[in-house]
Write a structure and sequence with these properties.
Length: 330
């Protein structure tokens, strides 16, 4: 298990700065996610940790050892790439055991270690299977087994679920979380999918334009976004400027702008302000109402219990906001 520390990491390609003074500490044994839109710098930082890129400034440490200038082979880090990078001319057993053979491990130990990993990842009946005969989920598990075979200090996962369909992605995400918990290996997961990050991570760093906008647990980032970018990137949000606070009965709030989640605006008989329903988005388990409050567009989410009254476009409804759920933004 390893503690990873990025200190003042900056990186540019030509005239474009992709990372700006990044400071992150990953705790020993945790699953830490780099989350952000395409081009935000998250994969570049992962590649710097792996040794495939050099930072322009700053240092990378594992267990207080500066590894910034070490070659990849000396870092004891394994990486699972987005396309898995499996060898098509090798079968499952040969792929998983490849790193061990490169290290000169004898045949008996290779067979024992590969058999153990294949069983752990529910691939024991696939050891002679060709790679092109496997499904996307099976290929992903082979790639993880190969990465774990060499007993790395750190496991890096670069968008490992992006090639899977939605149902398989959900199933594999759960399997991956259970596996990482059982192994206790320090893991960095890179994704642009906020739901993926929220469900799998111990902690998350939200990136935008080469900077870390906020770091924290999924619960803290969702419930207490520190800025507008995080509030809008993580989940759905209604952003209300202070000039419209009075229209939402928020006159006593001291802030320039607030974030209110759709589920925290309630339709109720004793509501404090009025909204006009413009459109309805029926989701089955919930109903999303797009409303205007003094020409400010907001979304209101109502849980569908099966007995609620479904309102129609054009109707006026009384609305109320849970004051405890208001997030003040910087």
């Amino acid at each position: 298990m390893s503690e990873i520390c990025f200190k003042y990491i900056s990186k540019s390609f030509d005239e474009i700065t992709v990372l700006k003074d990044i400071n992150i500490e990953v705790k020993s044994g945790e699953l830490f996610t780099f989350l952000g839109p395409s081009g935000c710098g998250k994969t570049t930082l992962l590649r710097i940790l792996a040794g495939f890129e050099k930072p322009d400034s700053g240092t990378v440490e594992i267990n207080n050892e500066d590894i910034t200038n070490l070659i990849p082979e000396k870092r004891s880090i394994s990486m699972v790439f987005q396309n898995y990078a499996l060898f098509p001319h090798m079968n499952v057993f040969e792929n998983v055991g490849y790193g061990l053979r490169i290290q000169g491990v004898n045949d008996k130990k290779v067979k024992s270690k590969v058999a153990y990993l294949l069983k752990m990842l529910r691939l024991e009946s696939f050891h002679q299977r060709d790679i092109n005969e496997l499904s996307g989920g099976e290929q992903q598990r082979v790639a993880i087994a190969r990465a774990l075979a060499v007993d790395p200090k750190v496991l890096l996962l670069d968008e490992p679920l992006s090639n899977l369909d939605a149902k398989l992605r959900d199933e594999t995400r759960v399997e991956l979380r259970v596996l990482q918990n059982n192994l206790g290996i320090s893991t960095i997961f890179v994704t642009h999918d906020q739901q993926e990050a929220m469900s799998i991570s111990d902690r998350v760093a939200v990136f935008n334009e080469g900077r870390v906008m906020q770091t924290g647990s999924p619960e803290d980032i969702y419930n207490y976004p520190e800025n507008e970018f995080v509030a809008t990137f993580i989940g759905e949000s209604n952003l209300i400027d202070k000039e419209f606070f009075a229209s939402f009965a928020l006159g006593q709030i001291k802030a320039e702008k607030v974030c209110i989640r759709p589920q925290d605006i309630k339709i109720c008989d004793n509501g404090e302000f009025l909204g006009k329903i413009v459109n309805i988005d029926f989701k089955g388990s919930s109903v999303n109402y797009h409303c205007n409050v003094d020409q400010v567009a907001v979304k209101v989410m109502q849980v569908n219990s099966g007995t609620i009254n479904i309102f129609k476009p054009g109707e006026l409804v009384k609305l109320s906001i849970d004051k405890k759920a208001i997030k003040k933004l910087r």
